[in-house]
Amino acid sequence: MHAAKASPAFPARFVWGAAAAAAQIEGAARVDGKGESVWDRYARKHGNILHGDTPAVACDHYHRYAEDFALMRRLGLKHYRLSISWPRIFPAGDGAVNQRGLDYYQALIDSLLAHGLTPWVTMFHWDLPQALEDRGGWRSRVVPEAFATYADTIVRAYGDRVKNWITLNEIRCFTSMAYGATGKAPGVIEPPAVVNQTIHHALLAHGHAVRAVREHGGRGARCGLTDNCDVFIPVTESAADVAAAQACFVRANLAILDPIYRGGYAPAYLRQCGSARPRVARGDFALISQPADFLGLNIYSAQFARRGAGGRPEKIPTPPHYPRADSEWLKHTPRALYWGPRFAAEVYGEKNIYITENGCGYDDDTVTRGECHDLHRVEFLRSYLRELVRAIRDGVPVRGYFLWSILDNFEWTDGYARRFGLVHVDFKTQRRTPKLSARWYRDVMAANRVL
Ligand code: GBH
After folding, report:
1. Partners of 353 in the beta sheet?
2. Nearest residue to 203 (alpha-carbon basis) of 168, 165, 153
3. Distance CA 138, CA 132 (A)
């Protein structure tokens, strides 16, 4: 018998990290002058969140960040993706800045750096100030304008110590899924023209974020969007199926990636919009398409595609019994981490891709005698990372990977039932217990290869 061959190494200086977001871990929803967010409001409405859970307390990370950073350090982490809560900085969205909110993140960032962690800061991870929603929300240009001031404010305040900025997290989750469906705050159904306008306004906010980093970020500042692009896996890796999957990728991601990389809406997108085209003002695309420094991709799952009858690209519906994590949408599709970044690089020429989220959520991660044996998570992540290293070895420019999530947390409409963490959180006692996967990930990061 031969010794098991070591999995290929990731590149030197590959960025390994873990991620979380303010609204999902901080709690302290009304502390130190924080304004209400659309998720605070949405969670109050009966039936929106499983078991009536709310983000009011979450992991109480607001008060426990120093312990959490110490734990991250013990787990071998060096990079941490967090988000800043807009309603802590501007409780009403714009107007008066809340000094206590600004000071809070000053202290948090200092602590993070003191624990040897490099911050990757997302400016907006869905927690829009409710006061802005009351003035039209993402339907209105008021929001990207207010966002511009918010972005200027935080980049000025923290830019001396924060060098990696993520502009927005997953545009479709706070636009089409929030104004064209009910599953994300504010959860209202508007006509298609309004929904398409929310996307346009989000793109403008991204443009303002890039501008703010260029103007105030100082030396070495870098920024990029995090997109949850739709990924398609070719059923076979033959040229025909690969071309079909790429065609599906292009079509599904036009609305967001074309304006950013090509400075305009693709004709195919405008045809999809029909009479519900977004209104565009002069100068919008110049702002939106300013070159960023990287593209962040949140990739959990994918659909399959092949060359169908007559040579046309054909999506294959994923069958109901297809293996998955406990989240319905989270199918076990490791090749998503191969084909997602590969198509983004091939289609848009992006030279620096970061996987800003990947992970899996389960309901049954329990602690017994101090241990949580989440072997299912280890196998899941292992299979995905092997596809990621395959992509890198085939020349796909992926520079880093952030695991979602460091802690079990407020999983939006799934509340606290769905656990994505490397670290188990007992939400009654706030006790943290690293799962088996956390030790495994520590070893992977240290070895720079899948173990
Ligand atoms: C990420 O979204 C988020 O950035 C993060 O905050 C979140 O905790 C994490 O994933 C885990 O969910 O229920 O059929 O309507 C991932 C992309 C897009 C996946 C919306 C779930 C809802 C599908 N998400 N999608 S459905």
Report:
1. 295, 398
2. 168
3. 8
pLDDT value of position 388: 98
Q: What percent of the chain has pLDDT over 90?
A: 98
- pTM exceeds 0.85 for this model: yes
Q: Residue of the nearest CA to atom 15 in ligand 1?
A: 183
List Cα–Cα distances, 60 to 29, 372, 417, in angstroms. 10, 21, 17
User: Can you tell me the distance from the alpha carbon of 150 to that of 124, in angstroms, rounded to the nearest whole number?
Assistant: 10
Q: Is the distance from the beta carbon of residue 181 to the nearest atom of ligand 1 less than 6 Å?
A: no
- How far apart are the CA of 295 and the centre of ligand 1, in A? 18
**For ligand 1, mutation pick of 26, 173, 301 (most atoms within 8 Å of CB):** 173
**Cα 229 from Cα 182, distance rounded (Å):** 20
- Which residues are part of the catalytic machinery? 170, 357
Tell whether omega for the bond before 317 is within 30 degrees of 0, i.e. cis: no
Residue 209 near ligand 1, beta carbon < 6 Å: no
Whole-angstrom distance, CA of residue 264 vs CA of residue 266: 6
The answer to whether 289 touches 262, Cβ cutoff 8 Å, is: yes
For residue 379 the two structure tokens come to 């196998």
330 lines ligand 1 (CB under 6 A): no
Ligand 1 site-directed mutation target among 39, 50, 170, 406, most atoms within 8 Å of CB: 170
Structural domains in the chain, CATH included, are 15-447 (3.20.20.80)
| 197, pLDDT greater than 90 | yes
Question: Is the beta carbon of 365 within 6 A of some atom in ligand 1?
Answer: no
Closest residue by Cα to residue 105 from 17, 32, 54: 32
Q: Is the pLDDT of residue 275 over 90?
A: yes
Measured between alpha carbons, how far is 114 from 122 in angstroms, rounded to an integer? 20
pLDDT tens, residue by residue, 110-157: 999 999 999 999 999 999 999 999 999 999 999 999 999 999 999 999
What are the tens digits of pLDDT across the range 325-340? 999 999 999 999 999 9
**Alpha carbons 192 and 11: distance in angstroms, whole number:** 44
CB of residue 183 inside a 6 A radius of ligand 1 = yes
